[in-house]
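Model: Ready when you are.
Researcher: Fold this.
Model:
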Amino acid sequence: MTRELYGIIPPLTTPFTPEGNVYEAGLRTLVDFQVAGGSHGLFICGTYGSGPVMTLEERKRVHEIVVEQVAGRMTIVAHVGTTSTEQSVELAQHAEAAGVDYIASVAPFYLHHDAPTITQFFKDLVDAVKIPVYVYNNPKASGADIPPALLRRLAEVGVQGIKDSGFGYIEFAHFVLELTQDYPDFRFIVGTEGFALPAFMAGASGCVSGLANVFPEVMVALWDAWIARDYEKAQMLQMKILKARKFLHIPSSTNAACYAGLHARGIDVGVPKRPVLPVPEDKAEQMLAAFREIGLL
């Protein structure tokens, strides 16, 4: 039976060695940090996880390490997006064999594809595995937008959910309006903590939160307040999260910012993988000082 996907799902940072290899000890430590922080799932090899800059073999190794370290304690989603159907299918089948619970993918990127091509890409993924496939809507990174009409078509070919990183509340709500009546089992995951609470209220069953890479506790507290219907506390936490999110954007790369933040919390996650560079010292200190000011460090 498929493990439920819900709650706070960090898009897990992937630790690397200075030579650019997957840093296994750091990855295992990071998984345990997320379990201790109360996260409900992990989204691996996505944007924050540097999936698109890794080789297929590196991504497969991350699948294996994370599944082994999680040991059934949380739900795992593997992002398998590439420029090629063949490579994405290869990653999807490996993730399934390794024990990953869900597959997610952006539309194939770099080349600009039309709706029939994107639909066929996702049908090929659905046909290649038995575990659920989600579409990862990230127009800024992939160059392909998934409008509600296309999302309906993807649901028709077997896609079971969406992780939406379009960063627009109205667009997210339109997805819910488009699918809920005819596809009541279709699931909606919001891909930013920026409007997590409004998204929960609109029907999101979880949030893939970059901030939760470094501060899972504050995101889990928001989720717990939402579940308890403590709306006053949830609203207060949402505003604190928005402030923290601004600080995470002080460096030019939020991906790199997570490494600096995790090191400040005593979690050895190595370094980013080139071409991503570590945060310059002055920017890192500015960000960390801001986090200290609001009590996160």
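Researcher: Now this one.
Model:
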Amino acid sequence: MSELFRTHLYEEHVKLGAKIVPFAGWDMPVQYTSVKDEVLAVRTKLGVFDVSHMGEFFVEGKEAEKFVDHLVTNDIATAPMGKAIYSPLCREDGTVIDDLIVYKLAPGRIMICVNASNIEKDFSWMKSKHLGFDCSLTNLSSVFSLLALQGPEAFNTLKMLIPTLPDLEYYSVFESANGSQPLIMARTGYTGEDGFEIFGTHQTIKELWKKFMELGVTPCGLAARDVLRLEVCYPLYGHELNDQLNPYDAGLGWTVKTSKINFIGKNELANKSHKYKLVKLILDKGIPREGYPVLNSQNEKVGEVTSGTMSVALNKGICLARIEIDKVPKDEVFSIDIRNKFYPAQLLKKPFITGGHK
């Protein structure tokens, strides 16, 4: 077994008594106090996550926007400068390599944040498509650490520490500096609440973490992060997305801009075909978990849970489930097989809760 990586805040997590678990090749804090306390801190006040395991690529040069627009399904070329854009990264056959965020920092300067488990895969893919574009592609994942500051008090708290921070629109990015060190702040996050993802050098992020702790910001782990993202129905690569699915299978058709002149996978994705439908289910009793069978009113299996948990906000079991498109029940009646016992599950059209993001 290969040795796990550790973020530059690892010792800080240990000092705080965090429970450390392996995740995507890293030793990561899964929780500090309780998942409930950490989730409530983010929903009502403020929490901070160390997500330095994520990857950062930079594309710079005359055709930076053109190259990235070619790589991903969403519209990069016409998006305004200073915008952050969520998008799948697809193969020619339309299957998803990863989901990522593109940040238009300045003309000819783009940052891409990718999932930790896919850093090498994504970079190799992008490199293989780079020929013929007048721009550079650099993997700076080892240079940057990343904090996610999430919750209603995020802006006021960060503004105290970074006075030049503007009141950004949601999914916008601001590039500043901490002395001579680069600092990139995006009004994004994985919780549904207002917040910022803060990219900086390892030393800068360590200093910010220390200041957040002094201000009483609640440190949060991966378990709370998973509950928070599931409550607002954000997909997770390896669960709602994988190498066999296209964006339509995961309910991400809105990210596929077939009006673009061209992008990798356009020919396949233009027909909008999909094999699955992603649905939101809530239970009065029972906690659904990944892999549990989803049944119709005749107790026939029609799909399976991709992500499931007990919602802190609702105190009920919630899940996302992948249903075979030709088995979606017309009566919209579902149940979930939890250890050979069938629990009724109500279909929801909207996310389980509405976050408070800007």
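Researcher: Key takeaway?
Model: DSSP finds eight helices and 20 strands in the chain.
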